[in-house]
Amino acid sequence: MSAEVRQFPCLSDNFGVLIHDPESGTTVAIDVPDAAPYLAILEDTGWKLSHILITHHHWDHVQGLDELKEKTGAHVIGPERSRQKIAGLDKTVEDGDKVSTGPYTVEAIGTPGHTIDQISWYFPDLKIAHTGDTLFSLGCGRIFEGDAEMMWASLSTLKRKLPVDTTIYCGHEYTQSNARFSLTIEPDNAALKTRAIEIDTLRAAGKPTLPTTMAQELATNPFLRADEPSVKAALGMTDASDAAVFAEIRTRKDNA
Predict the structure, then answer these.
(1) At what angle do helices 35-45 and 65-72 cross, to 10 degrees?
(2) What is the pLDDT of residues 40-59, one digit of tens each?
(3) Angle of helix 190-204 relative to helix 175-185, nearest 10 degrees?
């Protein structure tokens, strides 16, 4: 099974994503920070939007939803936990639910922490996931509604469920600042140092740093690596729990 994927900037630092199946004509949007960029690409490609998947209720992920739904008639699927917060949901899901979007089966992975309702969407046949504002390239979302233990559990779930060759899309272009912070946690991580240089090169050329892969994140993202002995040692927390180490890393990033 194959797909054409378009990623494009929205607002100041958000990304929009469209996933298109040429055979069936199915086209899936993930989050709608702003309707205009989606409508422009749909017009340019001739694709007809069939489904919209929502990760969470924050305004910069849903403010374009009403307009995009009205103009395309797409079927909107989002978290049950934000049914009262997001107008326009046609179907809601809980953790572990699977939905069909044309030929694609999509698994809803509950990843609360940034918000309580956050869903990460996993397309196993395409080896693609969209992790919203839970997992970023070299980062993770700020914890607004959950707590550090909840967020660590969500990241651990992604580590367990997403194969290393999964392509990861997410909500924001934060990678360059995340790389600088990551180097303060693991200054001796060779893979991270190499990646930071690549990221600087991409940004200098005005290019996106996303998507990323699960393999890259496992090797270089300190928020996913809070259980690594080398990270614990670097923080002087050798005997601490994984969740406590994660909480320390998140606190340092919040204060950076």
Answers:
(1) 30
(2) 999 999 999 999 999 999 99
(3) 160
Closest C-alpha to 176, from 157, 195, 199: 199
d(CA 203, CA 140): 20
Cα(132)–Cα(54) distance, rounded to whole angstroms? 9
**pLDDT per residue over 102-146, tens digit each?**
999 999 999 999 999 999 999 999 999 999 999 999 999 999 999
Instruction: Quote the DSSP letter at residue 85.
Output: T
Bridge partner residues of 135 (DSSP): 140
For 132-147, give one letter per residue: b (16+ CB within 10 A) or e: bbbbbbbbbbebeebe
Whether residue 207 is predicted with pLDDT greater than 90 in this model: the reply is yes
pLDDT reported for residue 1: 82
Task: Retrieve residue 130's tokens.
Answer: 């969209």
Distance, CA of 115 to CA of 216 (rounded, Å): 25
Rounded Cα distance between 54 and 69, Å, is 12
DSSP bridge pairs for 101: 104
